[in-house]
Input
Amino acid sequence: MTPGEGPWEGRGEGPDEGLGAAQRRLAEAQGRVVAALVAGADPPEGFDPERIRRQASSLIAKRRTIVARIRPDVAAAAGRDLAAEFAAYARSRSAPPPGYRADADDFAAWLRERGRMPDPPRKPRWWSRLLP
Output
């Protein structure tokens, strides 16, 4: 090899372009793994589908436990069906909402849409205290 030549000669890419392409491929592969774990997508080639399914179920169980701690009223409304209801809710979404509080509130709305949870009580307006 002469100075200035490298393994990229003849391919139209320099060392930075080759690294960028590798990073893009890695990001795409990671995106496919995440989609399989949180959105029910097919696992990428080379991954054990059963292990991905078990890990996805574990992540749903973790979210359910935290949601039940944040919103015990939601857990009470779902009752004994909490695990099945939360799994159906989680699988109906393409991705979890950003943060557990949002997840808990979205799950409450999901239950409310199905008649499993009453509407939240209306808070009195501040000015209603001034009325006789």
The chain has a mean pLDDT of 85.
